[in-house]
């Protein structure tokens, strides 16, 4: 009887230790992900959370996607103006395509906001607003219309990032290494191979190049900066209480080529 009781107590203690180890591992796992979430820049983090929640709500049948997609006839004839905004927070239903676009946002959107737009939260938000407005205008062309432009906005971030750090080395599936400036085109080819829609990628490239030309290339060539971040965007970021709005400018190097290199100075000062 004594041996059985001793065996029972030892076995129980071992189970408790094992449970605590499992709980400890789970706590560490959750803690690491929570710290990663806290480290994300504010605009990309908020946008990613909204996109994830929208697709999750559609998957759980809490939201019907047809009420948030962009159809210009419904906007104009039935004044469903919310569609001009809501369509940007939908990356599509849960699928491989959604996963790739979400990872693209988590990788290159974060790198862009932490890198070229470091301490420039208002400027990054203004870039996204300008990109969304550009996509809405381009989407008026029937051949370029797509019912949800979240993937296009993410692809625009990828394009701007590729122009900011053109010489960075990117490995694709561990098989091919290319320069950052070619990454959007490589992703376009991959979407073609996997029969994914190409219109969102093309829209993102067009909007991204328009922004990069007006915000960087044109001012570097002596033109006026016409994309200066409006005061109301700075006030919005200040009211939000997240991120930073200013950093010290860096003087441009006008003797260097500007076709395929990142910006050498910061705008909106």
Instruction: Kindly state the number of beta strands.
Output: 2
Give the low-confidence spans. 247-261, 264-269
> Which class best fits the helix and strand makeup?
mainly alpha
Question: What is the rounded Rg?
Answer: 23 Å
Instruction: Name the beta content range.
Output: under 5%
Query: What are the secondary-structure elements, in order, as H or E?
Result: HHHHHHHEEHHH
* Main sheet characteristics: 2 strands, antiparallel
Order of strands across the main sheet: 1-2
Helix share bin: 55-70%
How far is it from the N-terminal to the C-terminal residue, by CA? 82 Å
- The helix count comes to 10
What is the average per-residue confidence, as pLDDT, rounded to a whole number?
Answer: 85
Overall body shape: globular
Question: How does this structure look, described?
Answer:
It is a single chain. The protein is an all-alpha fold and 269 residues long. Among the domains are: 1-39; 105-240, no CATH class. The protein has helices at residues 2-39, 42-59, 72-77, 83-86, 96-114, 121-138, 150-164, 183-193, 199-220, 231-240; strands at 169-172, 176-179. The protein has a two-stranded antiparallel sheet with strand order 1-2. Helix 2 (42-59) packs antiparallel against helix 5 (96-114), helix 5 (96-114) packs across helix 7 and helix 6 packs across helix 7 (150-164). It is globular and about 85 Å long.
